[in-house]
Please model this.
Amino acid sequence: MTHSTEAFGREHTALPGTSAKGSAPRSRPDRRLVLSLLLLALSLAAFAALCLWMPVPMADMQVYRAEGAAVVNGTNLYGFTVTEWNLPATYPPFAAMLFVPTTWLPVPLLKLAFMAGNLALLGLLAHLSCRSADWPRARGSRWTVVVLALALGLWLEPVFQTMLYGQINLLLAVLVLWDLSRPAGARGKGVAIGIAAGIKLTPAIFAVYLLLTGRRKEAAVAGASFAGTVLLGALALPGATVDYWTRAIFDTSRIGKVWIVDNQSLQGLVARALHTPQPGMIWAASAFAVACAGLALSVWLGRLGHEAWGVVCCAVTALLITPISWSHHWVWCVPLLILLAADAPRWVLRVTAVVFLARSLWLVPKAGDLDLHLAWWLQPFASPYPVLGLLFLVAVAVRFRPSSPDVAAATRQGRPSRIAQVGRPPRSEAGISSRD
Model:
């Protein structure tokens, strides 16, 4: 990724220890990598100690295990609740089929497996984020960034909650980002997005993104892949399939209350700001406007060749317009932060990192229905992620407006910027990998 001096109005500073061309003395990256590994060891030790000290019920993992058991035992997939919070199954039948292996392990071992798996997925998500942003250029520096992302990213609130709940958010983000960061024309590109949408519907927005950016073949592959997951679910669980697609999918009360601070979507923000549990048409109109504007911005960036920015903007748009986006759904903060580290002023990166580290949503009064009666000045603390998401979309739109230096430079050169180019094979001479 090129570093424009106009990026967010300031010149971007390079990764410490690297030159403007991304090169560095051989000894320095090695030393930083060792220090990063030591920091990762300390981070993992602290996290393990915290898990031993506090209860870790992994409620969502228990729901997944119950879904897998329902498939094995032939019981009603959408008729049970588990854990002390009475949580039901909310994913399509295809997802329940994938959860069958969770029934093969006792709960303690399954918890360890989820912890280890999510840790590995966090590292993979950081790697894919660096590849998508093509930053840093030096191989040694990139590994250092990935290790640092593991050490520090573990404490980002969305990632931390994903680990403690035993969630699959990191898996879905990895499927989507791996698919989108592959070279144009790669065989089967779009399949992983369709599978992710088959597990949980929200990633389907990335198939729309592919379509609107002119990649009709990849969009069709994603759509066919998604249809295949629905067909597999119908063949294996016909009753549950009918129940899900005709009833359960429309019953948002199964998921949870939209106004609690846990919900970091636009609907949650509007409900709390208006002090109403049902924001109705006000939220619907707001969500429609944000969906149109966010997708238009994502498509504009994708067509310019700023694929990394387009993908992150698309993810933020999806998180905003979804009726319920629990705080742990915002694991897209990892690609967002790495993108900001690659191509934004340091103060923007630091402020964004603080928002995802601060956990302000858990500090506001929220016992009972206090979420609905917060003072106006507490609203940003109760809705940090949707506020940040809206500001991010506005800032990106301003930076990449048609008259901006970034867009003008790309137009003068007659080609997109040095990010994975839409609809074109990657150019090895530009330093973009052609490997999957």
